[in-house]
Design brief:
alpha/beta, 18 strands
Length: 459
C-alpha cells in the first residue's frame, strides 16, 4: 500500500473520529477509533493485494477529493456543534500527535448544529464540510440539491476501506432508520441515532400501568389524584399522532409539496372527523393540560402533572419531578368511533452524510455498533444499530425503552415546509376547543381548510 493511499485512509479515519465528536462522541469512542483505523488500513491493503485491477484502483482513488493530500499535508474540514468545539479541538490535537510520522494535518473545525445543517450546506455545497450530521427531515432537500453522495457511488469505497457493503449497513440498523436515510430506493446517509419521537412519562406513585394504557383511564386516574396530563396540541409534530394511529398519512412530493389525507377516510376506515372528535374529547377533560410547544419541561417541573407526552430530551425533568415514581411507556390508546386506537407518532433519526463534492467517503465507523454504544453512553442517544440497541444498559434506560416501544407505532416524518403552520393553527383550535365536538360539518370544514393550507404550492 503506497504512502499516499495510507494518507488517504488516515484522512478517512480522521473524518470518522471528528464526525463522531461533532455528533456528541466521547473519549472512549476516540480510543475505539484508533483501533479501527489500523483495521481499516489493513483491510484496504488486503483488498488491493487481492484485487489488483483498474476498478479497485478507481475505487481507492475516489476517496481523495476535498480532503486532499498535497505532499505530506492533509487538509480536512469538519463541522461540529457549538458545545462540542472543545472536544473537537482535543481530538484533533490527539490525532495529530498519534500520526505525526505520517503527515502534517491542516484541520479546520467549524460550528454547525444538526438542526441547521441543511440551511448552511445549501448556501454553498462545495464549501461545506466533507462529513456532517443532520436530522432526517433534511434528507430530501439535501438530495434534491445534489448535496449528498448516494451510496450507489460510495459502495466500492466502503467495501475497500471497511469490508462492509451498503447492504451490510442496512442490515445492521433498524428498518425505520434505514427508511429515514433512504430516498428513491437509494441510501444517502448512515443512520447514527434514533429516539427522536415522543411517548408518555408518568408518575408510577400516582398512576398504574393499567391507568396509562388508555387516555380514558389515564385522565380518570389523574382527575382522581387532583393532577393533570400534559401534551402539546399546537404542533403538527405532536397532533399528527392521533391521525397516524387511525391510519392517516402524509407524504412529501418531488416538488416539495405535501400530500395529506386527514380530511378523508383512512385505510382503517376512520374519518378525519372521527379523529378530531376524539381529540376534542381529550382536550375538554379537566384533567388534560394543553401545553405550548417547547414548554413541556417547565410544566413537568411545576409539579401539577402526573404524566406528560414528550421525548428523551425531557427525561431529566421528568425524573426530577416524579422521583422514585419516574416511569415511561408508549403512548396510550384513544377512543375513536367507539374503538380503542393506538396513538402513533412521527419517529425521527439523526444521520451522517458525505458531501457530494467530497471524495472522502469514510463515515461508517462513527455509526457502527461500538460508536453508537459510546454515543448512547455520552448523550443517551438511542442506537439504531440493532446490536447496540439490545445492549443491557440501553434496555435499562427508562426513556429510551419507552421511545423504542413507541417506535413500533411510528412513521418516518415526510412533510414539506407548508405542513407546520396550518397544523399548528389547527391544533390550537382543538386545544382552545373552538370547534364543537357535536358539529360534524364545522369539523369537516376545518379539516378541508387544513388540507388546503398544507398542500399549498411551495413559494
Amino acid at each position: 500500500m503506497s504512502k499516499i493511499k495510507k494518507l488517504l485512509a488516515l484522512v478517512m479515519a480522521l473524518a470518522m473520529v471528528l464526525s463522531l465528536a461533532a455528533c456528541g462522541g466521547s473519549d472512549s469512542s476516540s480510543d475505539t477509533s484508533t483501533d479501527d483505523t489500523t483495521t481499516t488500513e489493513d483491510s484496504t491493503a488486503d483488498t488491493e493485494e487481492a484485487a489488483d485491477t483498474e476498478e479497485a484502483e478507481d475505487a481507492t482513488e475516489e476517496t481523495s477529493g476535498d480532503a486532499t493530500a498535497s505532499g505530506d499535508v492533509i487538509s480536512l474540514t469538519v463541522w461540529g456543534a457549538e458545545e462540542d468545539q472543545t472536544l473537537l479541538a482535543e481530538l484533533v490535537e490527539g490525532f495529530k500527535e498519534a500520526y505525526a510520522d505520517y503527515a502534517t494535518f491542516d484541520i479546520q473545525i467549524g460550528v454547525e448544529s444538526e438542526s441547521t445543517a441543511k440551511d448552511t450546506i445549501l448556501t454553498d455545497i462545495e464549501a461545506a464540510a466533507d462529513v456532517f450530521a443532520f436530522a432526517d427531515d433534511q434528507l430530501a432537500d439535501l438530495v434534491n440539491a445534489g448535496a449528498l453522495q448516494s451510496f450507489d457511488a460510495l459502495n466500492d469505497a466502503l467495501v475497500a476501506y471497511t469490508g462492509k457493503s451498503v447492504e451490510d449497513i442496512e442490515a445492521a440498523n433498524g428498518a425505520g432508520s434505514v427508511a429515514a436515510a433512504t430516498m428513491n430506493d437509494t441510501l444517502y446517509a448512515f443512520p447514527m441515532g434514533g429516539g427522536n419521537n415522543y411517548f408518555l412519562y408518568y408518575d408510577s406513585s400516582v398512576l398504574s400501568e393499567e391507568d396509562v394504557a388508555s387516555w380514558d383511564s389515564l385522565l380518570a386516574a389523574a382527575e382522581a389524584a387532583g393532577k393533570q396530563v400534559g401534551m402539546t396540541l399546537s404542533s403538527g409534530w405532536y397532533n399528527a399522532s392521533f391521525f397516524i394511529g387511525a391510519g392517516f398519512t402524509t407524504s412529501l412530493n418531488d416538488d416539495g409539496t405535501t400530500s395529506i389525507d386527514w380530511n378523508g377516510t383512512s385505510s382503517l376506515g376512520y374519518t378525519g372527523v372521527d379523529v378530531v372528535k376524539s381529540m376534542l374529547n381529550i382536550a375538554s377533560n379537566s384533567a388534560f393540560m394543553a401545553i405550548a410547544d417547547g414548554d413541556i419541561s417547565n410544566q413537568i417541573a411545576s409539579g401539577s402533572l402526573c404524566a406528560a407526552v414528550s421525548g428523551t430530551w425531557d427525561a431529566e425533568a421528568a425524573q426530577a419531578a416524579f422521583g422514585d415514581g419516574y416511569a415511561a411507556t408508549k403512548l396510550p390508546t384513544f377512543t375513536c368511533a367507539g374503538d380503542q386506537v393506538q396513538q402513533g407518532c412521527y419517529s425521527g433519526f439523526k444521520l451522517i452524510g458525505v458531501n457530494a463534492y467530497s471524495q472522502n467517503a469514510g463515515s461508517e465507523y462513527l455509526t457502527n455498533e461500538e460508536s453508537q454504544t459510546a454515543r448512547f453512553e455520552a448523550r443517551q442517544l438511542a442506537p439504531t444499530n440493532t446490536n447496540a440497541a439490545a445492549n443491557e444498559a440501553v434496555s435499562a434506560n427508562i426513556a429510551i425503552a419507552a421511545s423504542s416501544a413507541q417506535d413500533v407505532y411510528g412513521v418516518v416524518q415526510s412533510v414539506g415546509g407548508k405542513f407546520w403552520d396550518p397544523t399548528a393553527t389547527f391544533g390550537e383550535m382543538i386545544a382552545q376547543q373552538t370547534l364543537d365536538v357535536n358539529d360534524d360539518d364545522a369539523i369537516q370544514a376545518a379539516l378541508d381548510e387544513l388540507v388546503v393550507g398544507v398542500t399549498a404550492a411551495v413559494d
